[in-house]
Each structure stands twice: as C-alpha cells, then as structure tokens.
Amino acid sequence: MNLLFTLPSRSAEALKTLDDSELCYCVPCDIISGQLAKAYLAVTAKSVVLLLDDKAIKSIKISQITDATTLVSSDCAQLILTDTDSVEHLFCTVSMHHASRYAYVARGIRMLIKGDRRLIRSEETERICPKCGKALPGTAVCPKCGDKGRMLRRIIRLITPYRWQFIAAASLMLLASLLNVAMGFVNRELVDNVLRREGATVADALVIIAVLAVLIAMMILTYILRNRVSVKLGSSISLDLRERMYIKIQQLSISFLNRRTPGVLMNRMTHDTNQIRAFMQNTFANMFNQLLTMLFSLIAMLVMDWKLTLMSVCLVPFVFIISTISRKFFGRIFHKQWMKSDAVHGRLQDVLSGIRVVKSFGMEQRESELFEKGNEEIARLSERNEKAWSTITPLFSFFFSIGTLIITLYGGVGILEGTFTAGDMSMFTFFATALYSQLLWMGNLPRTVVQMLTSLERVFDILDEHEELPSADKPIEHAIEGNVSFKNVGFGYKSYEPVLENFSLDVKKGEMIGLVGASGAGKSTLINLVMRMYDVDEGSILVDGVDIRDIDKTSLHRQIGVVLQEPFLFSGSIVDNIRYSKPEATLEEVMLAAKLANAHDFIVRFPDGYNTRVGENGHNLSGGERQRVAIARAILNDPKILILDEATSALDTETEYQIQEALGRLIKGRTTFAIAHRLSTLRGADRLVVIDKHTCAEVGTHEELLRKKGIYYGLVMAQLNMNKVNPAQ
Amino acid sequence: MNTEIKDENKEYEQIIAQQNQKVEQMFSISFLTKENTTVERTEGGLMSATVDGTFYKRVRPVRCFPFTDPDKYISLREGSGNESREIGMLLNIGDLGAEAEAIIRNQLDLMYFMPIIKKILSIREEYGYSYWDVQTDRGELRFTVRMGGNSINKLSDTRIIISDLDANRFEIPDTSALSAKELKMLDLYL
Predict the structure, then answer these.
(1) A28, exposed or middle or buried, with CB in 10 Å at 0-12, 13-18, 19+?
(2) Residues B107 and B121 placed together within one structural domain of the fold
(3) Model ipTM?
(4) Which class does domain A568-638 fall in?
(5) Which helix H or strand E contains A438, and what residues bound it?
(6) What letter does residue A676 receive in the DSSP assignment?
C-alpha cells in the first residue's frame, strides 16, 4: 500500500516554502468540510500539513503533538492529533478508500514524535489499481497494467519444460488447418471434374471420394492427436503449478496465510489452476487452429475472386457487432435471473439451517409464502429469458446465411455467364462457412484470455511471495533444555497495532508459567512467538541462551509440544494422529503417550482400538477424548517445552479434572506455558504472569499476586463472585 | 490477621456492589435532557459533555438506527471501539436545544459519510466488477463494486445502499426518481 504519493508540483512547492525537511509520508485526503476534494496530507520530519489547491490549509509541528491516532467510524476515518496541552484536534477526515493508509500514517507520526526516524512500510495490497482504476484480484500486481513482458516471460518459463508437447500441438494445429484447405480444393475438383464434366465415370467419382475419405480420416486423426496432446499439456502445467503452490504455502509464514483466508488459498489451488488447465486444453488448442483456418480460408477466397471475397466479408463487422450486442443482452438477462435464484436459494439455505428457529416461533406459513413468491418470480423470469433466447438465436443463422446468399447470387450469375464454375462456387461457400463459423467463437476470446491471465497472476502472487521468516544462514540443531528468556520483546500483527511492547521475562527449565490477562491482551501471541509462528519486531527470545531465529525451524518445532483449545485431528486412525508428531514412533511409545494422557483406556474400549478412524466420516470423539488424543500427540515426541492454550476450557468439570491430573504428571521436567481463563486451572503453576497494556504487568506466585492486590486480585475476586451467584444452592 | 480478612471482605463487597450496579444499568435506558446535560465543541473541533455534573472530555454521538431513524435515539458515548461506554441517550436530536443540536449534527456529519447519489452517469461492468461514475450531494466520484455478493443493500423497493470495494457506502434514496436511462443502467442491481 502506497504511503508516499507524489505531490502535484505546485503543492510540493507550497510545502517547500513552509517546511523544507524530508517528506516522510504523503497520502491523499478526499474529504474537506464534508465535501469530496482532492487534497493531500503531507508528513515531513518536522510537521504535518494539509494541502488543498496547492495551498497549505492546516499545519502543526511534530514537536507540538504528543499522540496521533486514526479513528475509523462507519463510513470514514479521522486523523486525530493530540497537542502538548492534551487537546485532541480533528486534523482531517478521509473516506474508507484511504482508511487503512491513515492507520499506518498515524503510526508513522507516533514514531516521528518519539524521534524515531525510521519509515514504516505497508505490505497490504491496494484494492484498486492506482494506474488503471480496475479492481485488483487480491494480488499485488495488476494483471492489466503489470509488466506485460514479465507475464510473457513467465508463461514461456512455465511451458519451457513442455516445449516438445507444445511444438507437437502447434504443428498438429497447422496440419489440421491445411487439411481443411485441401478439403476445399478437393470439393471443387469433385464438382467441376466429375459431377459437371461430360463423360465422367463412376470410377472418377470414386477416386475423388476416396481422396476425400482419406482427408477426413486424417483430419479426425489429427484432431484426436491434438486433443490428447493439449489435454496432457494442460494437466501437466496445472499439476506443476498446484504442486509448487502447495509446497510454497507450507513454507509461508502464518502472517502471510492469515492475510488470505483458507477459502482464498483453496480457490487459488483448485479453481485458478483449473482455469489455466482449461485454457491450455480448450482455448489454446483451438486458438491457433481457428485463427489459421480463418487466415487460410481468407487467402484462398481472395486468390479465387477478391471482389466476391470483399462482398461476403463486408458483412463480417455487422455480424460481429450483432453477436456482441446479443451476447451482452443475454449475459444481462441471465445474470439477473441468476441473481434472483441466488437470493431465493440463499434464503432457502438460511431457513433450512434455522428450521428450529422457524418452527419454534411458528413462522412456517410466512416462510412458505416468501419462498413461493420468490420461486414464482424466478419461474416468470426464466420463462421470459428462455423465450427470448429461443426466438433470437435462430435469427443468427439468418444473418450468417446472408453471406452465403450473396455468394450464391453472385456465383450463380457468374456460372450462367460462364465466368465462374460450379466447383468454384462450392469451394467458395465452403471457405466462407468456415470463416463465419469462427466469428462467434472469436468474440469470446478476449474474455477467456483475461480470465486465464488473472488466474495466472493470482497463482504467481503466491509463488512469488518471499518467505517472511528467514532461516538463519547457519541454522543450529539445538537440543533444547528448557530455559526461555524474553528480552524486551515487541510485536504486532499489523505494524500500527502493537500487541506486545517491551516484554521481558526469564523462565527457568522445568518451570510452569500460567499466562493471565483479558482476551486480546497478547497471551496467545506470546505463545505464537515462542513457537516462532511469527518473528518478533523488537528484542529477542532466547532458548538456553540461543536466539530462536538461529535455531533450525523444523528442529525447534519438533521439540515443542502444543495442545490448543479445539484440537485439530486429521482424518485417519487414532494411531496416525498420535504419531503425527513423530512418525517413526513405535506402537509401545504411542501407547505409553496415550496412557500418560489418560487416553489409553477409552481408546482400547473402541471396537477398532487404536485403528479407529477419526475426523471426517470417522468415529465421533467427544471433546474430552479429542483433547486427550491431542495431548498424547503433543507429548509423544518428549518435548522440552509444552504449550497449553486453553487446553481444558471447553470441557466439563469432571473431564477437566482428569485431564488436569494427567497434565500435572506430564509437565514435570518440562518448561510449560499455560493459558487459561478459569484461574483454578492454573493452580499448579510455579509463577503466574499477568499481561496487560501490551506488557508483563505482574509476575509471581498465586499468593504473592493476591497480596499485591493488583490486576490478578481483581480477576480472582470477579471469578469468585461468579461462582457465588447462588450461594444458597 | 483479623483486620486483613475484614479488609478483604470489604473489598469483596465493593466489587460485588460495582457489578450489581452494572447489572442495574442493563434494565433501563437513561435519556438525557436539557436539564441534566450540556454539550460543548472543543478547541480541537470535537465534542465534550457534562452530564449530571460529571464532565466527559471526549464524547461521540452514535446513531442507533442510522438508516430508518437518523435523528432519533442518538447514543452519546465516551471512549472508542470496543471499550466505548454509553453516557446516555437522546430521544430526539434536538432535545438539548438548537445550539447543542448543531454541535451534535456537526459531529455526526464527521462520522457518517454516506454520499447520496443524485445522478448516475455510467455503470460499466467488467469481469466481476462494476465501475460507477456518479454525481452525489458531496461531489462527483467514481467507485468500484464487486458483482454478486452483498454489495447492494435494499432497504425497501426504492431505497438502496451500495457498498464499494473499500467499504464506502452510497445511498440512492428513491430509485423511482431516477430517469429511465439511469434505471436501465441500475436494472441489473435491483
């Protein structure tokens, strides 16, 4: 996202006269006193200036501000600056188009206030191409304005491994077009030298027909081969892309993946690669063929009779325009029908999933009526559209046949006058038909090509993404002992929203740390940092004195065990799921882990024991059972660091007690980080850490913190009160 | 030891009293009147308020029914985002007098920016997006709308709200007031 727009030269001059220090940020401001306007907000190292019509209409010195925030309301965002007298000033208002830009700029101003001259950059993508104004398909580069050469080089690189198949497909296409032309000539031969010649015998006719038959057979053979080659080409390329994307997605950091929903990634893996495959398979194969056939037909016609050619071709633009208009028309009316049916289906889906609500409020009658009304409307629309379609499409054949009529008229007169033979006319008609039949198809070509390019851009958007968690130059294979220290750690998911600031803590080997704090305080974030799902922005995290950024990522992850609130089990057997953390584990090891996790008994009670299928279409485990399988999975690898993120909060009290017991045994000798809302869950912790206001607010044992009467005390009191709602019962 | 327990009990009771007060507040809406409330425009162009003698430095008015009743049920809030808290509710925007109304309206205008489309110049569709060129009460502008999905919110048969890619919103208060040509362009979205 661009944070440094270029000022119009006269505005730049106006700014210079006011403040000639370095320009740090410059972004458009599109609302001035409630009206749309083309103003700019310029932030220099010394001041914040609002420029309208090449004049500075507002300005404030950085030294006079103490804070800057961007406040987003329902339809617009406001930049609010606080001055040294702690008066909040509404500096400017912008539409949502620039809202996120301003959030970054506010953060930038805050850094300037602190005297930090580093500039912040935004990795967010623009939604609309600043160059052509077209919507971007979620990519950083516009498929339309992007460097065309780069795209072309990519396509070439993509097909280089398949160049022989490519050449084969192209030559087959050329052959098919040539065969088509040859057929035209043989046709003329048939009419002129056999059918219309005095004294021609049946044998003469048979020869020609045999030649025709061979040509047709060759044609069919060519098509079969061409189709096979292009199917192979299409699937190889999409397979290749899909594999590369899958590998890349696994490597990319969580923060990249979080920016794109699973749906978007799935779509790119399946839909977009499929689109590319379909293009290679159908359109690419046809494209050259059709173009070549058109070209050859046109040349043959021109050579025969250029006047007649021009006469029949002059209708082409006309036919083209009519077909374009009608395609738009039909696109429109069918789109409307589709939208309507979509709305009704959406409603239907809504009602079906909420059928209990409908029934419990006795609204069946009303829902039926609503559905009926929508349904009738769809039926009416569909009837009208289909009628229009079946009336108008036959009219096309008429337009197409006008060309043939002209040829018949002109050719017929020529034959009668002796300047044209019947064979000439037959051949001419043959080519003209070939030419016309390609036209409708050609109209769709630009759309198909753009669709393919967009898909390709989306795929490369992922393939081109660089890894955000760089591996160290020489990653260390470190055998973890369990000492973890946080040194002035700072981190935020978005650069303008810090989650942790200046967080420091030393955790000794084997210690259990309970993390406490309001939701969103940064407990899970801290854990994500220990697991190195993200890299810290400031400071460092050391494991046994080694920076975790220097430790080999795979080696680090293999030595950390994690149990989350809603454990995810893959489709497969229980043993496969437990073994996920250590595929080479023996069956005894698996059983031992399950025993430790208090899971062995219930697993053995299943008819299929450890081979019981779980997950999709499998045996339905209860929440507690899933949790215990997840714990077994986490400890199988004998991790030195154990992370429990609300591991027992979704369970009933009895199950929680059992799991807590199991965990109590497991955490011995392991450094454990546990998050829980229910404070009783953390009673086994050696130390509790309260995270508040982005940093470590309180540290100590339960008793120490209670005596302190701080945040923790308040939390304990609030929970006590909750439990005492009805003391009489 | 004994005093410590007493202290603890006292604090415990305090916490309970606070929570009960919060629960109490859930059962009623406190409407503000001219008698107990004044609002002021701050030096920085924002708004402050005094309610029952308590001064609130930064207050934001929020519409409870922005589409159907924009001038009724205005919630005055302190703080922002998820931590904002209601100080009180205005039944009608003019309840605090004409001067206060002007200040509140000014603040509302800053936060609600939904241009009203006066004239549609063109709507061009291309590959799943439509590009609109319109005249509004706030000036001329272009915006991009994703086709399909929830870009068009039909409040009634003739009143629609259009959301663009950036989540800006635009209103057409009465589609029947549009010309036949404009209606034809809009047809696809109705």
Answers:
(1) middle
(2) no
(3) 0.83
(4) alpha beta
(5) helix A422-463
(6) -
Those residues with Cβ within 8 angstroms of residue A282's Cβ, 6 or more apart along the chain or in another chain: A230
Q: Domain boundary residue among B111, B145, B179?
A: B111
The answer to whether residues A151 and A453 touch, using CB atoms and an 8 Å cutoff, is yes
Q: Do B66 and B124 fall within a single domain?
A: no
For residue B96 the two structure tokens come to 């605090």
Q: Does the structural domain A9-113 have CATH classification 2.170.270.10?
A: no
| Secondary structure of A337-369 in HEC code, one letter for each residue | HHHHHHHHHHHHHHHHHCHHHHHHCCCHHHHHH
- What is the C-alpha to C-alpha distance for residues A113 and A117, in angstroms, rounded to an integer? 9
Tell me which H or E stretch contains A281.
none
Residue A226 to residue A285: CA distance in whole angstroms? 7
Q: What is the DSSP string of A76-142?
A: EEEEEEEETT--EEEEEEEEGGGHHHHHHHHHHHHHHHTT--PPP---PPPSB-TTT-PBP-SSSS-
Per-residue pLDDT tens over the stretch B12-59: 777 777 777 777 777 778 888 888 889 999 888 889 999 888 899 889
Q: State the best of B18, B22, B75, B110 to mutate against chain A, taking most chain A CBs within 10 Å.
A: B110
Angstroms from A447 CA to nearest CA on chain B: 8
pLDDT tens, position by position, A153-199:
878 888 888 888 888 888 888 888 888 888 888 888 888 887 777 77
Interchain contact A665–B (C-beta under 8 A): no
On whether both B90 and B121 belong to a single domain, the answer is no
What is the domain class of A503-536+543-559+641-729 according to CATH? Answer: alpha beta
Which H or E run includes A457?
helix A422-463
Question: What ranges in A482-620 are assigned the alpha helix state H?
Answer: 523-530, 553-558, 574-578, 587-596, 600-605
Label the pairing between strands B139-146 and B129-136. Answer: antiparallel
Q: State how far residue A339 is from chain B, nearest Cα, in angstroms.
A: 7
Q: Is A707 on the interface with B (CB under 8 A)?
A: no
Q: Which residue among B12, B110, B114 places its CB closest to the CB of A93?
A: B110
Q: DSSP for A42-84, please give it.
A: EEESSEEEEEETTEEEEEEEGGGEEEEEEEE-SSEEEEEEEET
